[in-house]
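Worked example 2:
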Amino acid sequence: MDPFQLPSIAEHKAAILDLCRAKIEEFKLLGYDRVEFDEFWSYIESKVRFGIQLHELVELILSVRITDYMNYLTVNAYRQMEGGLGDPPRS
């Protein structure tokens, strides 16, 4: 879900995007130079639930651990491969 569809979050779009860039910069300081904004934002969107509040989105971005993000990328890479993991299980 795109959190910017919610009016309470849309009005803070610039600050949220800056926060994402700061988190990516943190990962780069830790030696992960290939973190791309679009992939990071896709990860954030995958974690957003409907009706998320601004403070919850900020906490989500700030609490991303590099291991969780890398696991997300790995699973997505397998899904994109022919014969990979396929569709995620439905809950």
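Residues 3-80 form one domain. Residues 47 and 60 are 8 Å apart (CA to CA).
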